[in-house]
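Need residues for this backbone.
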């Protein structure tokens, strides 16, 4: 069965050389394709992509999609372009293992969604990396909650069509799609050998952007469901005072030998994260252009 790998790209120049370095070692078959969907990059992402298209014209296909900002809109656009029977989703900052595609082909079946392993790389061993490791992209934990992340996901195209396109939201569309997939009778299978590596976020600013992006997507979702904005505000306002979460993270950091000073600093900055989430959820509900508020 042929494969269409779908990768949304937005200002990803920092990661693309590693991505292509890994992809160029992956074993693809003749009818496979990798769709690179540039969602309006303003850096050198397009140049890096087009250089690889030139070197591997039968594998890579580059599209510039700017009708709507957001990785899920870009993925939906790519699904309509995809020729493969298997749809494979990953991100521009991942590094797949060499047997990635062959593992998917040997594991995929009708009515099955593959949730591959996402191996988070801790490099600097700072407190924000460990927070990211604990809070985001735990593929095994998400599988246990019947969720699959588009950082490493595969499904037959006919099954994807049965479930429907990703919800038109800026972030979190994979989890909403997972809920619909399960309700349609699809089974999510966790496959640890089908693996991609993913860098952890290393700074407060990177974590803030990630959390605000998620909250913005939740705001999109609430408006799409025509739920009242007051309900959204209450939920995110109460999150600010959810101190049991702070305690859980603080205990985890203490066990990782972070100092009391570092943990205190994290909790102060985490308050700003929670306030940022509230503001971003409201902006998402109102569908303010995410590029204007520098979400990526």
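Answer:
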């Amino acid at each position: 069965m042929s494969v269409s790998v779908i990768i949304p790209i937005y200002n990803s120049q920092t990661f693309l050389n590693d991505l292509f370095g890994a992809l160029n070692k992956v074993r693809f078959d003749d009818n496979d394709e990798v769709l690179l969907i540039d969602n309006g990059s303003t850096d050198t992402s397009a140049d890096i992509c087009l250089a690889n298209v030139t070197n591997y014209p039968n594998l890579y296909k580059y599209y510039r999609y700017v009708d709507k900002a957001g990785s899920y809109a870009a993925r939906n656009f790519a699904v309509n372009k995809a020729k493969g029977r298997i749809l494979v989703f990953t991100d521009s900052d991942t590094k797949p293992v060499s047997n990635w595609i062959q593992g998917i082909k040997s594991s995929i079946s009708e009515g099955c969604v593959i949730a591959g392993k996402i191996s988070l790389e801790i490099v600097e061993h700072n407190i924000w990396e460990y927070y990211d490791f604990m809070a985001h992209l735990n593929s095994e934990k998400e599988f246990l909650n019947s969720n699959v992340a588009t950082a490493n996901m595969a499904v037959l195209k006919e099954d994807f069509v049965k479930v429907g396109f990703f919800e038109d939201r800026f972030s979190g569309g994979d989890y909403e799609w997972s809920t619909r997939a399960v309700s349609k009778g699809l089974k999510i299978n966790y496959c640890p050998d089908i693996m991609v590596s993913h860098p952890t976020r290393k700074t407060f600013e990177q974590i803030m952007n990630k959390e605000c992006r998620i909250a913005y997507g939740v705001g999109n979702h609430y408006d799409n469901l025509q739920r009242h904005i007051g309900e959204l505000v209450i939920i995110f306002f109460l999150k600010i005072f959810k101190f049991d979460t702070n305690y859980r993270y603080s205990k985890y950091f203490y066990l990782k030998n972070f100092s009391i000073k570092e943990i205190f600093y994290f909790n102060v900055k985490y308050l700003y994260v929670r306030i940022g989430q509230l503001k971003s959820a409201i902006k998402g509900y109102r569908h303010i252009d995410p590029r204007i508020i520098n979400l990526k």
